[in-house]
Specification:
The chain has 358 residues and is α/β, with parallel strands linked by helices. It has 13 helices and 13 strands. It binds 4'-deoxy-4'-aminopyridoxal-5'-phosphate. The site of 4'-deoxy-4'-aminopyridoxal-5'-phosphate has 13 residues, from α5.
Length: 358
């Protein structure tokens, strides 16, 4: 019976390996450093009591506040169920299944390929160069038939920014042919690197943002697509009629108030200080081979025996994200920056392993 049902499904869905989100991977931890979340909850109270009514498709207060925060106009902002929905809406609006392609540069965020596979769109990959920068000549060779290029900066899971000169070249290369989507999910940790100011120059530039990281609201599921009006108008054609639940819009509006933004900036400063502390501590451990620079709320680390480190920490309730299967990341684990106490527990556990190995 279940065999028959399986056969009814689309071939690409049968073949699909779903995104292995941190929550799906499970674990029994009390130090969660595997999903790049903010480590502590921020308190909110719901003020909207009108759940008998459908919500606004694009809640005005959320759009206006995000536009002000990003230095854009409201017509350049679309809000959706996380940045993940933005990734998919772009494919649904711009790529013809079976005909057009998307392109991205691994190692990078896993949802670009999962969304493409789900929808039935070819994806092309151009591996990043040393230092995880763009291989522009190889991208140029692969651009035929590509409608959307996804570029994550700062990149997940490596933590680096993409060189802005290269981004300009990529924008010139894709002009009139494809959208360039800059995934800025982690931009609050290095706000000076945003490309938001470039939108007026490039009609084919799109920027993805989220409240899941620096704003400490991963459970809210709220993200933004920033682009010029013609792009936003097309996305509005394919978005669900009511993408944001009323309580989501309510909390998002509060998070984007002046006080909400000030709190977010304070949290970012705390995490950046913890990151600096980890950058002092990690290289001193003999289980650690390489610590990669990071502009984000996570650090990519190469270990001499990463499966052993991963398991030993897992058994102590410290949950990291394994990156071994990601191209070029053998031996690497990704560590989200937690509270100072969580960082200290991490370092103590790694110190104990380092002593064993010495
Ligand atoms: N882009 C990147 C680079 C991410 O790391 C994530 C979160 N894992 C997302 C997009 C999706 O964010 P959201 O929670 O807003 O769907």
């Amino acid at each position: 019976m279940s065999q028959k049902i399986e056969e009814l499904a689309r071939a690409n869905v049968r073949a699909l390996t779903p995104y292995q989100s941190a929550r799906r991977l499970g674990g029994n931890g009390d130090v969660w450093l595997n999903a790049n979340e903010f480590p502590l909850p921020v308190p909110f109270e719901l003020s909207q009591q009108t759940l008998n009514r459908y919500p606004e498709c694009q809640p005005k207060r959320v759009i206006e506040r995000y536009a002000a925060y990003a230095g854009l106009t409201p017509e350049q902002v679309l809000v959706s169920r996380g940045a993940d929905e933005g990734i998919e809406l772009l494919m649904r609006a711009f790529c013809e299944p079976g005909k057009d392609a998307i392109l991205f540069c691994p190692p990078t965020y896993g949802m670009y390929s999962v969304s493409a596979e789900t929808i039935g769109i070819e994806y092309r990959t151009v591996p990043a160069l040393d230092g995880w920068q763009l291989n522009l000549p190889a991208i140029a060779d692969q651009l035929d038939g590509v409608k959307v290029v996804y570029m994550c900066s700062p990149n997940n899971p490596t933590g680096n920014l993409i060189n802005q000169d290269d981004i300009r070249k990529l924008l010139e290369m894709t002009a009139g042919k494809a959208l360039l989507v800059a995934d800025e999910a982690y931009i609050e940790f290095c706000p000076e690197a945003t490309l938001a100011g470039w939108l007026q120059e490039y009609p084919h530039l799109v920027i993805l943002r989220t409240l899941s990281k620096a704003f400490a609201l991963a459970g809210l599921r709220c993200g933004f697509t920033l682009a010029n009006k013609p792009v936003i108008d097309l996305l509005m054609k394919v978005i669900a009629p009511y993408p944001l639940a009323t309580p989501v819009a309510d909390v998002a509006g509060q998070a984007l108030s002046d006080e909400g933004i000030a709190l977010m900036r304070q949290h970012v400063a705390e995490l950046n200080a913890n990151r600096a502390w980890l950058f002092e501590q990690l290289p001193q451990l003999n289980v650690v081979q390489q610590v990669f620079p990071s502009e984000t709320n996570y650090i990519l680390v190469r270990f001499s025996d990463s499966p052993k480190v991963f398991k030993a920490l897992w058994d102590q309730g410290i949950i990291l994200r394994d990156q071994n299967k990601n191209p070029g990341l053998a031996g690497c684990l990704r560590i989200s920056i937690g509270t100072r106490n969580e960082c200290e527990r991490l370092i103590a556990a790694l110190q104990a392993l380092s002593l064993e190995q010495a």
